[in-house]
Amino acid sequence: MVDKIEKALSYSFKNHSLLEEALTHPSISKQRCDKISFFNYERFEFLGDAVLGLVIAELLINKYPEEKEGSLAKRLAGLVRGEALACVARKLNIGEFIKMTQGEEVMGGRDNSSNIENTLEAIIGAIYIDSGLEGARDFIGRHWIELIDNMKEPPKDPKTELQEWSQGRGLPIPEYKVIKQTGPSHDPYFEISVKVEGVEEVTADGHSKKKAEKNAAKKLLKIIKEEDSGK
C-alpha cells in the first residue's frame, strides 16, 4: 500500500512511520486503549493546517504582487477551507488509504469529507517533518496550482456576503443557532439554523459549526437571490 499511496501523492517518504501515522484515523487509536492511543493523524493534521496556510499565503503573495491584504486573505480562506481540501483529497483518492475501524468504514468513513480533509492536512504535516518546508512547498504547489489558477477573483465567504446583504438593507446581522449535534466526539455533525429579519429561516448541516453556518448562509443567499430575480 505504501508504494501505491506514494505514487498517488507523487512523494516518497524517507520515514514511512510518518506516513503511517498520518493515515491513521482516530477510531483506530481509540480502539487500542493503550499508551499509544495518541497514534493517529490529529497531531500531524494540526501541523499540516499551519504549513498549508503558510505555503498558500506565500504562493499568493508571489502570484498577486499588487493585490491588497484583504483580497489575499479571501483567496487564502478559499484555498485552505474544507471544500478545497476535499477536492484535492478526492483527486488523490485519499479515502482509499485511511486506516480506520470497520465501524467507521461501514458508516461511510472513506468518503467522509471531514476524514479525507483531516488526513490530507496530516499528510502535509508528515511531509513537512520528513523533508522540511521545501518538500511541503513542492507538494502543495503541485496539488493546489489548478485551484489557485481557477480562482479568477477573490471569493466572498457566504457568511460575509449574507451579513453585508443584511446590513445594506438596515437589518440586524444574521442570527445562527445550533439545532442539533450528532455523531462521535472525534467526528461531530452539526445542524444549524440562520435567521434574517424578513426572510424565512433555513437550516443546514456540516462536520463543524463553521461549515454548517457557511452552508446555512449559502442556502439562505440562494433563496434571497432567487426571490430578487423574480421581482
Give an account of the 3D structure:
The protein folds into two domains: 2-150, Orthogonal Bundle (Ribonuclease iii, N-terminal Endonuclease Domain, Chain A), CATH 1.10.1520.10; 158-229, Double Stranded RNA Binding Domain (2-Layer Sandwich). It is globular, with a radius of gyration of 20 Å. With 231 residues, it is mainly alpha-helical. A three-stranded antiparallel β-sheet has the order 1-2-3, with helices on one face. It is built from ten helices and three strands, in the order αααααααααβββα. It has helices spanning 2-9, 16-22, 26-32, 42-63, 69-80, 82-91, 102-106, 113-150, 158-168, 209-229; strands at residues 175-182, 189-196, 199-206.
Rg, Cα atoms, Å: 20 Å
Mean pLDDT rating: 91
Assembly annotation: single chain
The total domain count is 2
CATH architecture designation of the largest domain: Orthogonal Bundle
Order of helices and strands: HHHHHHHHHEEEH
The number of helical elements comes to: 10
Strand content: 5-15%
User: In CATH, what is the class of the largest domain?
Assistant: Mainly Alpha
Give the % helix. 55-70%
CATH superfamily of the largest domain: Ribonuclease III domain
Distance between the termini: 57 Å
General form: globular
Secondary structure class reads mainly alpha
Q: Which strand order spans the largest sheet, edge to edge or round the barrel?
A: 1-2-3
Report the biggest beta sheet as strand number plus sense, adding barrel if it closes: 3 strands, antiparallel
Residue stretches low in confidence (pLDDT < 50, at least 5 long) are none
How many E strands?
Answer: 3
According to CATH, what is the topology of the largest domain?
Ribonuclease iii, N-terminal Endonuclease Domain, Chain A
